[in-house]
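WARN no homologs supplied; continuing
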Amino acid sequence: MNKFIKTLKNIWSIEDLRQRILFTIGLLAVFRLGTFLVLPGIDGRAMAAAVESQSADNSLVGLISLFTGGAFSQASVFALGIMPYISASIIVQLLGFAVPYFQRLQKTEGESGRKKINQITRLLTVAITLVQGGGYLTYVSTMDIPPDFDYIVSPGLSPIIFWATGIIILSTGTIFAMWLGEKITDRGIGNGVSLLITIGIIAALPGAFGAEIELTAFQAPFIFLLEMIILFAIILVTVMLSQAIRKIPVQYAKRVIGRKGAMIPQAGERESIPIKVIAAGVMPIIFAQALMFLPATLAQYTFGSEAPTGILKALSDFTSWQYNVIYFFLVVLFTYVYTALIVNPKDYAEYLKRQNAFIPGIKPGAKTAEYIDAVVTRITLPGAVFLGFISVFPAIVSLFGVNPGFAMFFGGTSLLIIVGVVLDTLQQVESHLVMRKYDGLIKSGRLRGRSRMQDIGAPM
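OK structure emitted
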């Protein structure tokens, strides 16, 4: 406990770190405040009651509401959350693999290329938000009115005004949320976009935990205890694999150092390149989940408040086998895609060559790049399969009677995002402490988040 208090004092004593943390907390508070600002002409309580009654038949509605921190179910100005921006990022990154123009922006134009990509992503976010905003308003306007309420959308409101103002406000809310995320990344602590999603998920945890206690703890305490043990074990395994690395040994060539006129040979130094087993972190989960929201959006356009049928019904239910099979393979696919984006074997090989270093037994240059690529491919497979399995685990535990709202925290997107974002944020805090010669957050070893050295493909 004394160690913990001392660490908090060290964090608070670093002015730059203190300002970054307070800045992040302030912007997250603004984002949470926006989830309670209801769109004009809508009864927020009636909307929440209608969504709650519908969630029993369409569990994906509850999942969408979870990712927006309840803003979706309350018809808030942040009802669409940050997901349109995530969808736009997916599209732009996929274009980077297929379109030469985007490849040139990513690889050869440096900072100016990144600025152009950011601008394209923002414009695409606006376009996606306009489409999703229309779908959301269709969904709201066609919902069944709950018995205890007179209306969801005010009957005295002109449809033209409702649609025009609603789409503009929803688009503005998403763009503002995107701006908050970028500011947190630049001037705060952690990845801003991921933090916005995480804070919404955490906001739903107390209510889901309370519902599970009411449902299970008093009626079957042994089952509830077993659930807690399984949840704790899953968290431990997730943290362990999130921190797991494969070290590639590196040796620097022998050098001579002049000392008092004499040339003294110095033995080659040995270091290592740490490659994370799950180098992509939480981003494949976010990308895959963003794509899985598209069928629900299509169902809103097609069926309104009516229950969808056929494949759309299956893809709107996160417990269906169709949904989970597609979700599993999307997670595996995006794990490889995102790992390829942030871990470039050629960059590692060039870096080692410039530093006059080599991997023992491997020729410098192309052979080194091939070796690193083979290692990354081998360790990415178990990491991708684990991410895919843990993503569909909530659907498995829900089949055993766990409350669907609480089941979302048994792995799945919720747990992976929380663990990944918390570890990445703590790693940034620890880097500030170590840089100023304070003790780290743990007694031995180091927290491993995705560092900037890893982003540019150089060994950490």
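The beta strands are 245-252, 255-259, 262-266, 270-276, 357-358.
OK
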